[in-house]
């Protein structure tokens, strides 16, 4: 296997986040298009990293090609994401390219994101996952718990 490198996500990597968001939205089949990701507000806020508001992330690369990314954003209440809990809790997103799945990369990326959250003194991270998504098992195994009253939305929370 080629050497895997984990590195910080850069704010200018919008195209990677667009590809990742489309992959996340279409985890179970082709439901959405890239145009949906770019134009629909419920998706488009996931493709912008704003370090000045505290957003951060980790990219997995092989020979300079991104094969996965995990990122956390402090989305405002008036433009909240699916996993929004409050403005002090970053919402995480995780994507691994189809051909790199099932090898522990998602776990490594999420663990790296949690380590960075701890280093930044954050108390918790939220996310949202659809009920049948296989990633739900990964999140649970890393300590994410369903948020009471938000189980139907797939909102989960990890205390870091």
Describe, in short, the structure shown:
Helix content is 28%, strand content 24%.
What does this protein look like?
The structure is a single chain. The protein has 160 residues and is of the alpha+beta class. It has one domain: Aminopeptidase (3-Layer(aba) Sandwich). 28% of the residues lie in helices and 24% in strands. It is built from five helices and seven strands; from the N terminus they run E-H-H-H-E-E-E-H-E-H-E-E. The protein has helices at 14-25, 34-39, 41-44, 105-119, 135-141, and strands at residues 4-8, 56-62, 65-73, 91-96, 124-128, 145-146, 155-159. The strands form two sheets. It has a four-stranded antiparallel β-sheet with strand order 1-2-3-4, sandwiched between helices. Strands 5-7-6 form a three-stranded antiparallel β-sheet, with no helix packed on it. Strand 6 and strand 7 form a beta hairpin. The protein is globular. The model has no long low-confidence stretch (mean pLDDT 95).
């Amino acid at each position: 296997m080629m050497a895997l490198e984990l590195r910080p996500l850069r704010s200018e990597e919008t195209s990677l986040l667009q590809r990742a968001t489309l992959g996340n939205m279409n985890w179970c089949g082709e439901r959405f298009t890239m145009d949906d990701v770019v134009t629909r507000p419920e998706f488009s806020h996931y493709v912008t990293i704003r370090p000045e508001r505290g957003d951060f992330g980790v990219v997995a690369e092989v020979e300079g090609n991104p094969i996965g990314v995990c990122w956390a954003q402090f989305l405002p209440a008036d433009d909240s994401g699916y996993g929004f809990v409050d403005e002090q809790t970053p919402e995480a997103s995780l994507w691994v390219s189809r051909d790199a799945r099932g090898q522990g990369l998602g776990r490594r990326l999420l663990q790296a994101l949690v380590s960075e959250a701890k280093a930044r003194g954050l108390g918790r991270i939220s996310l949202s996952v659809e009920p049948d998504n296989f990633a739900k098992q990964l999140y649970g195994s890393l300590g994410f718990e369903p948020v009471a009253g938000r189980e139907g939305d797939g909102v989960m929370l990890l205390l870091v």
